Predict the structure.
Amino acid sequence: MIGRGTGLLVQIASQAGVQGFSREAVYCAAKHAQVGFSRALRRELQPHGIKVGVICPAAVRTNFAVGRGRDEEMLTRTDYFLRAEDVAGAVLFMATQDPGSRVTEVGMMSLGEAL
């Protein structure tokens, strides 16, 4: 990418990377590190024409979402969970920006989730 003078790196983190959640300290710490890494890498790579972005979704309707007070039945709620397609759409949004602009961070949550 440096040799070509262009490129895009997109990381998928979590809302846990921008705010803390009780009983999730280790997960939050890891996701905060990922967001910080993306921010630092963006500054390092910007002079080379490489864009770096991070997407921070809240709960996504996947098997990973089950646990910590969420059960399989909750996965059927369309108002509480994002879909994997929603996150993919955010990646596409980042990837299709004009070469002169960049989207550095996207925070996502469903309309029904109160964070």
The beta strands are 7-12, 50-57, 105-108. Residues 25-45 form the longest helix (21 residues). The mean pLDDT is 90. The longest strand covers residues 50-57.
